[in-house]
Amino acid sequence: LGETTSRVWEEKLDYLRSLAGMAMLVTHPDYLDVPARLGVYESFLRHLKTQSHCWFALPGEIAKWWRQRDAMRID
Fold it and tell me: What is the pTM of this model?
């Protein structure tokens, strides 16, 4: 709250990537109710679009991947 740029989100994304982690973006319209806040969010989405080596997946796609992974066996 109170941020005027997407810098904090971008830094957190870099940190998660360094750990081979996952970032899940959940938004709520109550926090995107004024142009300034919406602009910060849009800036972050533009930043995400420039990132390579990312999998932009919907929750169902991630669940499917986990089910497939769980079914795998190593011989």
Answer: 0.73
What pLDDT digit, counting tens, does each position of 24-52 carry?
A: 888 888 888 899 999 999 999 999 999 88
Residues near 37 by beta carbon (within 8 Å), at least 6 away in sequence: 31
- In order, the DSSP letters of 21-58 are --------GGGS-SHHHHHHHHHHHHHHHT-SS-----
CA–CA dist 70, 65 (Å, integer):
9
Closest Cα partner for 54 from 8, 19, 9, 22? 22
Of 24, 29, 20, whose CA–CA distance to 9 is shortest?
A: 24
- Burial of 43 per CB tally in 10 Å (0-12, 13-18, 19+): middle
